[in-house]
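Key result, reporting period 2: structure in, sequence out.
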């Protein structure tokens, strides 16, 4: 198996994991949650973190190596830069829920904690942005947005 295929596979599987985790968190989040449930959310969120690291490593390897497409294919494409920007924004929106889950997971497992509505909105915005990114990837694969010579 070639390095490019392996990297693309890791990249795609990790993207699926990221989307799956955010969907799971959105489905599991409630206005009131026990610390036991928040601990479970923190564990689920850890999978998100691992998947993000793999996406970044695989993506950067594909971008900056001579394994697949040339560096200019990505570097000189405004859609690619938009996709990267959305990825960073998704990451920023994920910080508050992650910190909340980690901060409130310890204590009496049956104790109830009020979950701020902003966490639900952070998850929804993450999902919206994540579902825009495949469209951008498809456009980019067709050469749309390339401004190089």
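The corresponding designed sequence is given below.
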């Amino acid at each position: 198996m070639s390095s490019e295929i392996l990297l693309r596979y890791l990249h795609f599987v990790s993207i699926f994991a990221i989307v799956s985790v955010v969907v799971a968190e959105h489905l599991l989040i409630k206005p009131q949650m026990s610390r036991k449930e928040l601990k479970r959310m923190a564990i689920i969120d850890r999978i998100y973190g691992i998947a993000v690291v793999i996406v970044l490593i695989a993506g950067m390897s594909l971008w900056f190596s001579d394994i697949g497409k040339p560096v200019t294919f990505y570097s000189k494409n405004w859609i690619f830069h938009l996709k990267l920007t959305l990825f960073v924004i998704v990451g920023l929106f994920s910080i508050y829920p992650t910190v909340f889950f980690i901060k409130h997971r310890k204590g009496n497992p049956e104790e109830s904690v009020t979950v701020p509505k902003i966490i639900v909105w952070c998850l929804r915005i993450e999902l919206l942005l994540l579902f825009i990114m495949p469209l951008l990837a498809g456009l980019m694969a067709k050469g749309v947005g390339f401004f190089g010579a």
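The mean pLDDT is 96. Residues 23 and 48 are 11 Å apart (CA to CA). This case is discussed further under Risks and Mitigation.
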